[in-house]
Records
---
Amino acid sequence: MPDGDSAAPVRTGPAPTPTFMDTSELDLTGRLAVVTGAGRGIGRAVAVELARAGARLALVARSADQLAEVRDELAAAGAVAEAYSADLADIATVAELGARIERDLGPAGVLINNAGVVGPIGPTDRLSVADVEQSFRVNAIAPMLLTAAFLESMRKAGWGRIVNVSTGVVAHPTALARGNTYVAAKSALEAHSLNLAAELAGTGVTVSVYRPGRVDTAMQGWIRDQDPDTVGGGLVERFAEWHRSGELITPAHSARALVSRLGDTETGRILDVADAA
Ligand SMILES: NC(=O)c1ccc[n+]([C@@H]2O[C@H](COP(=O)([O-])OP(=O)(O)OC[C@H]3O[C@@H](n4cnc5c(N)ncnc54)[C@H](OP(=O)(O)O)[C@@H]3O)[C@@H](O)[C@H]2O)c1
């Protein structure tokens, strides 16, 4: 992080050894947690961890069948969860969604903006405008708008936790050549997060970025399924090799590292699953 960044936590001396709380110690009883992309992958695992910590859940994604499965799983375990099937690429929907959730379930205390798309991938001069726009809507604009919808009630409560799920490639943009749109959109998301953290300093509402690591999800599978010749640059082959060599971590592993940080009061942080190792 550059010097003079007011959103950066003030530290003196060497960086502390990260200590990760067991999520079983985190008490979110009575809090409403909104998780986007909660139908599968990392978002689903995050919802499970939040429910374990006592939170009530609002689960958001497009696939109603996947959301229903997660809602039923959580309900069977004794948690309260509601499913909201919504397309986050649709700005009008997102603008209304926050108010709808709060009307139904009351004020939100936790917002995990996890939904994301990695496509389009491939040579930048062959990308369609529609695909580039879709990526920015889902990866950057929707989290900004959904966050805005919950800010008033979080500020009023003097407590809130907003986590925006990003990617480690923002720190190493050259590592994902042929993924230009994704890197650009997630970089925008991170800049938004740190800027908002500074704006909300002292309110009790924290804003963090979370980089989840290489996780074995449908998103990784989608990349492996692309045509290596069309994408080019050895990108598809590299993802296939990570899968073959067993390098990917589970969604539950990554989710636990995210949820374990929600007790922290520090804001404007970029959290990485690697810090939890
Ligand atoms: N897996 C990794 O290795 C990895 C690495 C770095 C960062 N990440 C980030 O982690 C987050 C979760 O990824 P994942 O790997 O768990 O992916 P995933 O399994 O593909 O899940 C993505 C979730 O986002 C939802 N989503 C996508 N487009 C949406 C839209 N237009 N409206 C509403 N919901 C939408 C999907 O549901 P529907 O399709 O049903 O809408 C799904 O629930 C993403 O932000 C991703 O960029 C993942």
---
Amino acid sequence: MRNDDIFNESKLYMPGGVNSPVRAFKDVPMNPPVIKSGSGAYIYDEDGNKYIDFVCSWGPMILGHCDEDVVKAIKDTSERAISFGATTELELQLAKYICTTVDNVEMLRMVNSGTEATMSAVKLARGYTGRNRIIKFAGCYHGHFDDFLVEAGSGVMTEGIPGSAGVPEDSIKNTLVAQYNDISSVEDIFKQQGSDVAAVIVEPVAGNMGVIPGDENFLKSLRALCDENGALLIFDEVMSGFRVAYKGAQSIYKIKPDLTTMAKIIGGGLPCGAYGGRKDIMEKLSPLGPVYQAGTMSGNPLVMAAGITTLRKLHDHPEYYVHLEKLGKKLEDGVRNIAEQKKLPVVINRCGAMFALFFTEDSKVKNYSDAKKCDTGIFAKYFTHMIKKGIYVAPSQFEAVFLNVKHTEEDVDRFLQAFNSFEI
Ligand SMILES: Cc1ncc(COP(=O)(O)O)c(C=O)c1O
């Protein structure tokens, strides 16, 4: 079957033809290609088109598609262990690996997605502090948990809806929204409701309103405000973990969150998530403590095997991060030069292997209000142009461009050539 036939028939059986809304390409004037296979930096659709993939499954595929070691780990493990719902040594290996690698994670719990990680971390913070309120930032996305669906960035933004139907007022009454990179907006909330705030949850490098790195002083002040007010600081590193640096964004900023949420890369491309942090907090989780959270598939052997293999490979090849930075810089400089020459209204933000190109007349994009000023009409034209040239980027102005270690300088040149021939 061809791309359009599969997509059209999918619509009969899955809402919008997809299992996650952004895949439906609603913001751009075309049907999504239906992806058949991937290898290294490339993906192939059912019509036989080849694309250089700059989505990388929205982040996880940092080693590229079907990395031979990850494939082998999954194959070998599947011969003897698919799922037991019981303790395995593989879980220990991945948990120990992450705890001894990520500086502020002493203990962790595996779950099955980023959403599960963030919602469980918030529940734990509430259980630990005995408080209900949380502070999140406009434009930050932490998954589809009801309490987070207020000014929730990318997917919700692309759909053009303010939050989501089906979320009772009661679910969001404890969610207080502050402005990213604006510490005074957080101070104001703490002044009024500080003693009720269980946690501040933040993407240290925001990746769901395009890419917006947190200002160092902003993040440091968040740490201080949480300490002053007895609230926990949760870094949502679902996207940035093992991507912007091996030890995550917290290692770049040198800030100690109380809890960290992870997913994407730690599962090596299989469904995964984890949350972890200070031992005294993690020990409040059932069966040790009173905060209940569980999962039949959590710590699944295949996922653990793919995750360990991915993280070990990243560890054993520090040159990968050098390569990613080099390509990221080349992409950033190249796009900036082309935009200047062609007088395109573009702002570029980047942190390591996460990159965003905003179509805006402004000179900076530092928060959600800035991001929302982008011209999504120009983005749609850019997107259609790029995909026709075989460059697969996310079909939304508010998603990141991701690099993987199999991308080459030639792949980045191809991106730049395609961008160079783009006319508004
Ligand atoms: C920062 C962040 N947190 C949480 C999530 C939710 O993760 P998942 O889609 O695995 O539920 C995402 C997803 O993109 C994310 O980027």
